[in-house]
Amino acid sequence: MPAQAPASHQIPFRSSLARLAPEARPIIPRLLAGLGVGLSASVLAVLVPQVFRAVIDALLRPGAGPSAVVWAAAVVLVMGVFEAVLTFLRRLFVLDPATNVEASLRVKIYRHLQLLPVSFHDGWGSGQLLSRAMTDLNMLRRWLAFGAIYLVISFATVIVGISMLFTISWQLALIFLAAAIPISVYSFRFRRQYVAASRRSQDQAGDLATAVEESVHGIRVLKAFGRSREALENFAVQAEGLRETEVAKARHLAVFSMVVTLLPELALGSGLMVGLWLAATGQITVGALAAFFATAAAVANPVEMSGALVGMALTAKTAIDRHYEVMDEPVSITDPADPARTGSQPPSAATRGALAFRGVRFAYEPPRPSRTTAPRAPRAGKQAPSRAAAHDDAGRPVLRGVDLELVPGETMALVGITGSGKSTLLQLVPRLYEVSGGAVEIDGVDVRRLPLAELRRIVSVAFEDTTLFSSSVRDNVLLGAPVREGPEAEAILGEALDVAQAHFAYSLPEGLDTRVGEEGLSLSGGQRQRIALARAIAAKPSVLVLDDPLSALDVATEERVEARLREVLAETTTLIVAHRPSTVALADRVALLRDGVIDDVGTHSELLARSAHYRYVIASLDTEPRDLDSGLDPDDSLDDLEEAR
Ligand SMILES: Nc1ncnc2c1ncn2[C@@H]1O[C@H](COP(=O)(O)OP(=O)(O)OP(=O)(O)O)[C@@H](O)[C@H]1O
């Protein structure tokens, strides 16, 4: 387990920036070009007062003609045009690289999220991940394209400007410089406060996004239980928390901006009095005095903007830290260093589908505080706990030594009381989680020694809680299929829909091209399950792992599905979590999971005869058909079903 990450305000700014080096390296030439033209533009702006100085002094010289004014005006005009062109070029140079960095970091975080194990996703709110992939990177892009360049330009302008001030009058320049001392002292304090507030606000924005996402997904539950108002109140508390942080952030920025505006103005005021005295006593010319104030104004502008620029830089730093918190999470489930087989072997030829659990132990990882959001300010109201935090079992063993063998082509039902670890055991087969001890084997090979792509081709899964993607029925079903286009794919699709008894899909408004999923047509729970089951079948697996995917089907449909499954996937080994006697009755054998171990294995009748715990579990299973498509009598007994086989 990696060491706990330091809180973001403890990471020095330079270290945060250094993380961007691999992204920034290719764009450095363009950034430098942008910086170069930006600097030239600002140097031009600082030089304009020197022209004024020359003009005024020339005009005040006895016998001076108006031609000096014409020349000066022409020079100022040319300098102005140059400055405008340079500013345009600066934008042109930096915009493209900044958007490239944003896009590349976004793709990287998405790819990393795909690679990270399910245990990582258990511990993170989806809004947190969403805000890191979207808002944070947007802020970073804006800073790279504008803030970072402008900060350097402003700094250089101030340095050049102050040097110019010294060439005009060292006494006046010293007065101006005196204002810089309290500004730099104060900026230290500001930086600390602002980084903490900025981190808090970006985390709170992520939490808020999670809250919106959860309530949109759970809108039916909230409405059905009349909890919309309570959800709104909780949301309002969270939104208020974010507002307060934003206000605190803005307040820090306002005070800092006030300091950086006020002090140079005070310096200018005092400088004016001293300057007039110096001019009156002939120590400087009137032209020099005018040039001094024009230059001082040009220097004061970036100083005044420094509050906003520093704020932007600190926000970008927080965005970088938040991005790399996710990127630094280790991908713990990876391809083996010495694979037992190569991915090029055709699975059907190489895999018979003998599935074995050997002394399998498993405990969910306890949630680490650094995994969720960074240090938060205490705030009123309830905070939705992360998913892993909601499980008291995290860290405690769920499976304590499971031994179970399935012969190729066998269908085995897994039963046990609720929370006994059935779903957990299933998820170890395709390595959605990694065993804490022991091994899961397919054809005698530890699944950890199979390349992940191959393992997930051999093993196909369907869960009770079905996820359909926003695309057509066809795309959803063929998601894991060996071929996804052409006549062979169509044949696989037709067969999978037939086995899953999902014929309804043909009569959808646009047939198999009908868009389903979040942004598509709403399907019933049973329909969704059938599509998800078809997806698992279309993958042509050697091992099929079904986590009660038929729970929303009526008993008759379930039976038809099982019968077709046997026909079509006669060679497929199936491990199915059963929550209904009907599912149990359709299996070849049943395994009883109890207290983290397999308590007994046998046929349904054998277990009924010899295991009191099995009888207890069976008695507590749901006997009601949930999707009343068929009109089957719910009182149909198990024996009838067994006979039906
Ligand atoms: N992601 C998770 N993080 C931490 N603990 C978990 C997680 N998922 C499940 N658990 C815990 O592990 C134990 C086993 O859960 P599991 O879902 O495997 O049980 P189950 O037998 O499938 O239950 P059911 O029959 O109700 O579906 C439970 O105590 C549960 O609280």
From TrEMBL:
One GO MF term: ABC-type transporter activity
Transmembrane spans: 27-48, 68-89, 143-166, 172-190, 253-278
Location of the region described as Disordered in the Swiss-Prot/TrEMBL record: 366-395
Q: Does the keyword Transmembrane apply?
A: yes
* Residue ranges occupied by any ABC transmembrane type-1 domain in the UniProt entry: 32-315
**What is this entry's stated membrane topology?**
Multi-pass membrane protein
Keyword list (alphabetical) reads:
ATP-binding, Cell membrane, Membrane, Nucleotide-binding, Transmembrane, Transmembrane helix, Transport
Q: Where in the cell is it found?
A: Cell membrane
Pfam families in UniProt: ABC_membrane, ABC_tran
User: Which InterPro entries is this protein grouped with?
Assistant: AAA+_ATPase, ABC1_TM_dom, ABC1_TM_sf, ABC_transporter-like_ATP-bd, ABC_transporter-like_CS, P-loop_NTPase, Type_1_exporter
Q: Where is the composition biased (Low complexity)?
A: 370-380
Residue intervals of the ABC transporter domain = 382-620
Per its UniProt record, what SMART domains does this chain match? Answer: AAA
The GO cellular component terms are: plasma membrane
In which family does this protein belong, per the annotation? Belongs to the ABC transporter superfamily. Lipid exporter (TC 3.A.1.106) family.
Task: Output the PANTHER family linked to this UniProt entry.
Answer: ATP-BINDING CASSETTE SUB-FAMILY B, ATP-BINDING CASSETTE SUB-FAMILY B MEMBER 6
Identify this protein by name: ABC transporter
